[in-house]
């Protein structure tokens, strides 16, 4: 069963309420079980885990076997890192610590095929080992998702410039890292951190982009508050 990355992108652009699963464990069976829980997509945390390249491809396959889209969070702004997860079949990427429009333009260059970018053409799992090459490459630019993480006060200050870039589908707020950049590490309920997060939320509304964050204690009240804001 193939995932429908175009549907996920449409939901991001419509600012639908979505619930994502998150995995930092290398065994694909864990992700496969998670994909049956009713989540809209699964984030694969390559940044803060020991997930290897081989494991990430197996995890991507496990997601897609149940029809659930997956977005790996890459570990670094690196062409090779992006190329490998995309050729493994990922439906897009989540990118940490994005601060400037110049960084976004470079990500687009590595992620998208010409004429939008300079992604190289390969025949790997994503392209059906050649059997799905033409369809995949023709649809990729318009169907793949790019989510940037806002994790510093510099990124918050640049948020409107970042979201005005058409290929950005949404922003993910990182309150812990924002608190660190403000000199109050770990104080994610601090007024300065909450105000910074609200600036991101407001900008996402203004430019019609998805907005998300982690919640390690997702009570019904916290979930409703996140949706309302």
Automatic annotation (TrEMBL):
GO CC annotation terms, alphabetical: cytoplasm
Domain (HpcH/HpaI aldolase/citrate lyase): residue spans on this chain: 22-209
Keywords in alphabetical order: Lyase, Metal-binding
Pfam families, alphabetized: HpcH_HpaI
InterPro entries, per database record: Aldolase/citrate-lyase_domain, HpcH-HpaI_aldolase, Pyrv/PenolPyrv_kinase-like_dom, Pyrv_kinase-like_dom_sf
Family of this protein: Belongs to the HpcH/HpaI aldolase family.
Keyword Lyase annotated: yes
Protein name: HpcH/HpaI aldolase/citrate lyase domain-containing protein
């Amino acid at each position: 069963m193939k995932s429908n990355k175009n549907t996920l992108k449409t939901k991001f652009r419509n600012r639908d309420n979505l619930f994502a699963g998150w995995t930092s464990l290398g065994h694909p069976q864990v992700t496969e079980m998670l994909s049956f829980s009713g989540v809209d997509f699964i984030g694969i945390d390559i940044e803060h885990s020991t997930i290897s390249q081989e494991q990430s491809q197996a995890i991507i396959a496990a997601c897609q076997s149940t029809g659930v889209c997956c977005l790996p969070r890459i570990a670094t702004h690196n062409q090779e890192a992006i190329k490998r997860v995309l050729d493994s079949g990922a439906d897009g990427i989540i990118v940490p610590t994005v601060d400037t429009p110049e960084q976004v333009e470079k990500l687009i260059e590595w992620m998208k095929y010409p004429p939008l970018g300079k992604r190289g053409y390969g025949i790997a799992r994503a392209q059906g080992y050649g059997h799905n090459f033409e369809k995949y490459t023709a649809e990729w630019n318009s169907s793949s998702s790019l989510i940037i993480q806002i994790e510093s006060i510099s990124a918050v200050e640049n948020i409107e410039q970042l979201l005005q870039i058409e290929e950005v589908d949404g922003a993910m707020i990182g309150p812990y890292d924002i608190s660190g950049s403000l000199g109050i590490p770990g104080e994610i309920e601090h007024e300065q951190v909450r105000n910074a997060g609200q600036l991101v939320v407001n900008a996402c509304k203004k430019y019609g982009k998805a907005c998300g964050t982690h919640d390690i204690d997702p009570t019904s009240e916290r979930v409703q508050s996140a949706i309302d804001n």
